[in-house]
């Protein structure tokens, strides 16, 4: 039996989230750079934890094990929120970094890697958000047509 593609994407999202957590924790631990006290780095640490320990496990497990918690509006909402967070995070840290020629110390290189992995996370969440919204719209259309059909059937009775 083949594994659905969404599981591979979720595993990649968790893996990239763990990488972001590790790299931002390293940057925060280096107290000799101004980035150690940056709210953008703190936000990316939160975002890595949010993705790794809250959002992706919910998106992965709720439809399978807890279908009542996987409401048709909550799943796209979590996807959209996480996608927007990642977009804001990797753009913000990328705007704060100096050019690559001046980024020669390890904390700066770690933040460059965080920017790259953050952009990958954003792309992955953009793809899954698209499919979650398409699923919601398909469910909405099929729900409306089923209600109309059912309603029309009751009119004749």
Strand content: under 5%
Number of strands: 0
- First-residue to last-residue Cα separation: 46 Å
Largest sheet: none
Global morphology: elongated
* Number of helices, counting only DSSP H or I runs of 4 residues or more: 4
Q: Unreliable stretches, pLDDT < 50, 5 or more residues?
A: 144-157
Gyration radius over CA? 20 Å
Q: What average pLDDT do the residues reach?
A: 86
Helix proportion: over 70%
The sequence of SSEs as H and E is HHHH
Going by helix content, strand content and strand pairing, the class is mainly alpha
- Tell me the count of domains: 1
Protein name: MARVEL domain-containing protein
Subcellular location: Membrane
Organism: Penicillium canariense
Main location: membrane
Main features:
157 residues, mainly alpha, 4 helices, 80% helix, elongated, disordered C terminus
SSE topology:
Blueprint: H1 5-29, H2 39-65, H3 74-96, H4 106-155
Please provide a written account of the structure:
- The chain crosses the membrane at residues 7-31, 43-66, 73-93, 113-133.
- Its main location: membrane.
- This is MARVEL domain-containing protein.
- Residues 7-131 form the MARVEL domain.
- It is found in: Membrane.
- This protein is mainly alpha-helical.
- It has one domain (5-150).
- It is built from 4 helices and no strands.
- It is elongated, with a radius of gyration of 20 Å.
- The N and C termini lie far apart (46 Å).
Question: How would you concisely characterize the structure shown here?
Answer:
It contains four helices and no strands.
């Amino acid at each position: 039996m083949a594994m659905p593609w969404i599981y591979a994407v979720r595993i990649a999202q968790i893996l990239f989230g763990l990488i972001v957590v590790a790299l931002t924790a390293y940057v925060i631990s280096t107290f000799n750079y101004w980035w150690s006290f940056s709210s953008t780095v703190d936000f990316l640490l939160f975002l890595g934890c949010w993705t790794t320990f809250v959002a992706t496990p919910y998106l992965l497990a709720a439809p399978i094990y807890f279908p009542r918690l996987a409401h048709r509006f909550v799943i796209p909402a979590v996807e959209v929120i996480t996608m927007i967070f990642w977009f804001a995070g990797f753009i913000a840290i990328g705007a704060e970094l100096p050019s690559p020629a001046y980024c020669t110390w390890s904390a700066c290189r770690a933040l460059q890697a965080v920017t790259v992995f953050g952009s990958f996370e954003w792309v992955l969440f953009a793809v899954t958000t698209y499919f979650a919204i398409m699923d919601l719209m398909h469910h909405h259309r099929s729900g409306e047509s089923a209600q109309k059909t059912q309603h029309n059937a009751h009119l004749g009775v």
